[in-house]
Design brief:
The protein has 256 residues and is α/β, with parallel strands linked by helices. It has one domain (9-247): Rossmann fold (3-Layer(aba) Sandwich). The protein has helices at residues 18-29, 41-52, 69-83, 106-116, 118-134, 155-175, 193-199, 203-212, 222-232, and strands at 9-12, 33-38, 59-63, 88-91, 137-142, 180-187, 244-247. It has a seven-stranded parallel β-sheet, with helices on both faces. β5 (137-142), α6 (155-175) and β6 (180-187) form a beta-alpha-beta unit. α4 crosses α6. The longest helix has 21 residues, at 155-175. It is globular, with a radius of gyration of 17 Å.
């Protein structure tokens, strides 16, 4: 299937590793020009090489702290200037400490919102004029399965990331028939370095236990998530907006 992404310009935030990198590689593999960003310069250089190897499009990389609102907005503008516009924005942000909701202070919650919610807002606000002027665009916000199914081990994340869903729903009406769609992708457990580091030396054993509780019986492959994002960025997804898309192997059982 031709996703119609050849020559499109995509900005993928938080893409020096993990799921952000998987999305960037999938879009590049479909022929898109891709801008990536991340805080670690060495990781970013490796990621740029991996993304560039996926397809014929141009790839740019920028060292960036997404908690700096002005720098995040400037990255969006610079991407459009360097690559000839902007068609796809993928917002992605850093994680927050794990633990139950009553184990954090008010300051922890405030910091979590700055880390896991505000970057989605600042990046989107910067990108919307560029997307709307073309009458075509895709905004994909990467969140977490805890949006739909809170996990007591990730209380801070569940609270902070719920704001992403509220913001996305508001954008649906604001964008109307502009040709720009907006959706939230909510991944469950995927085999990224961040996840394995979280489980420490016994990561393989502990993740095997987690997989036993997932209906599909395995931890997700980041490449699968990248393919999902590429579809939602495609021309075929033009009638899908305002959706929360679970990518968790069936781990979320709730209805609604």
């Amino acid at each position: 299937m031709d996703l119609g992404l050849t020559g499109r310009v995509a900005a993928v935030a938080g893409s020096s590793s993990g799921l952000g990198l998987a999305v960037a590689k999938a879009l590049a593999g479909e022929g898109a020009h891709v801008a990536i960003c991340g805080r670690n310069v060495e990781k970013l250089a490796r990621a740029e090489a991996e993304v560039a190897a996926m397809g014929p499009g141009k790839v740019t990389s920028t060292a960036l702290d997404l908690s700096d609102d002005l720098a995040a907005a400037a990255w969006v503008q610079d991407t459009a200037a360097a690559l000839g516009g902007l068609d796809i924005l993928v917002t992605n942000s850093g994680g927050v400490p794990s633990g139950p909701v009553d184990s954090f202070t008010v300051s922890d919650y405030r910091a979590a919102f700055d880390t896991s919610l505000i970057p989605h807002v600042s990046l989107t606000l910067a990108a919307l004029p560029l997307l709307q002027q073309h009458g075509w665009g895709r905004v994909l916000m990467i969140a977490s399965e805890v949006i739909r199914q809170p996990n007591p081990d990730y209380g801070l994340s569940a609270v902070a990331r719920l704001g992403i869903l509220g913001y996305m729903k508001g954008l649906v009406d604001a964008l109307g028939d502009s040709g720009v769609t907006v959706n939230v992708l909510a991944p469950g457990y995927h085999r990224t370095k961040m996840l394995t580091d979280q489980f420490g030396e016994d990561a393989d054993t502990e993740l095997a236990k987690v997989a036993e509780g997932i209906p599909l019986g395995r931890i997700g492959d980041p490449a699968d998530f990248g393919a999902l994002a590429a579809f939602y960025a495609s021309r075929q997804a033009r009638y899908i907006t305002g959706s929360l898309v679970m990518a968790d192997g069936g781990n979320t059982r709730g209805i609604g």
